[in-house]
Amino acid sequence: MNDTCSVGFEYIVEKVHEESLQLDSALVRSMQTVSGMPGEVLPYQIRSEWSVTCLILFCFLVFSHIVKNGKKYIIQHIRSLFQRKDRSSLFDEVQGTDNGYTMVFPLLTCICYGLFFYYYSVESFPALVYVTPHEALIGGYILLSIFYMLFKWGSYNFVNWVFFEKEQSKAWIQTYFDLLSAQCFLLLPIILFIIYFRPDVIISNILIAFTLISAKILLFYRGFRNFFNQSYGFLHFILYFCALEMVPLLLLAKGILYMNQIVILNF
Question: Where are the transmembrane segments (predicted)?
């Protein structure tokens, strides 16, 4: 009888111990992280940036407001790009409303170029996404575009002050800002297409190059009409398109590349 009870007690103890081990094993397994199939990291998308969305919305609203309320200004300045006027001012009829539109359109153009510089830099230097705040980069590219515009405006004023009369200088500066304004009509839909549809970088570069080359061709045409009919006009023409067009554009491209490298190395 005692042997039977001893065997039965040992059997119960053994089963309790097995159950305890199973419970401990299940508890350990529940605490361990189960490693499944590794997830795929999504690529960085510019359209997910809140700052980019705010800038695009701002540009679209301002652009829509100007197009709605400034149709007369837009039509007259587009016509002036292809007409030759010998009056003291090219745009006497809309002189009262010129100042606001003349500054807002070029500002929108600089914002669009700044967004494209950011897109190009992120695609060419992916490390920029991880080394510095994106808002600072976007702001830097926009400020660089504005500085480039102001630098050319100052260069034009200085060269024209040396070679030409006040009215001719005024006509050329007005043509320059008109072309900046005209670029906005092409750049805004192109930037929307680039950011939200993410085409190949080559296609994006072709679209921006088409806009820039078209503006240079119109500037070439206006320069020919304004200055080539004079004895020293040809020399002035070469000065404009070598010293004041091509060289600053190359310096801008080099400056963007150097800025990206400095940011990556130092931050």
Answer: 50-67, 100-120, 140-164, 176-196, 202-221, 233-257
Position 6 scores a pLDDT of 47
pLDDT for residue 117:
93
Q: Determine the pLDDT at residue 88.
A: 44
From the number of C-beta atoms within 10 Å of its C-beta (0-12, 13-18, 19+), residue 239 rates as middle
Please list, in sequence order, all residues whose beta carbon lies within 8 angstroms of the beta carbon of residue 6, skipping any fewer than 6 positions away. none
- Residues in the chain predicted with pLDDT less than 70, given as ranges, are 1-42, 81-100, 226-237, 239-240, 267
Distance of CA 216 to the CA centre of its chain: 20
Helix, strand counts (H, E) of the chain: 10, 0
| Predicted local confidence at residue 207, as pLDDT | 93
Assign residue 84 a region: left if phi > 0, alpha if psi is -120 to 50, beta otherwise? beta
Q: Which amino acid is at 22?
A: Q
Distance separating alpha carbons of residues 123 and 115, to the nearest angstrom? 12
Do the beta carbons of residue 216 and residue 245 sit within 8 Å? Answer: yes
The answer to whether the CB of 52 falls within 8 A of the CB of 119 is no
pLDDT at 134: 86
CB-based burial label for 14 (10 Å; 0-12, 13-18, 19+): exposed
What's the pLDDT score for residue 54?
A: 93
Separation in Å, CA 148 to CA 53, 240, 253 = 24, 15, 11
Please tell me the predicted confidence (pLDDT) of residue 92.
46
Q: Among candidates 93, 72, 107, 120, which has minimal Cα distance to 180?
A: 107
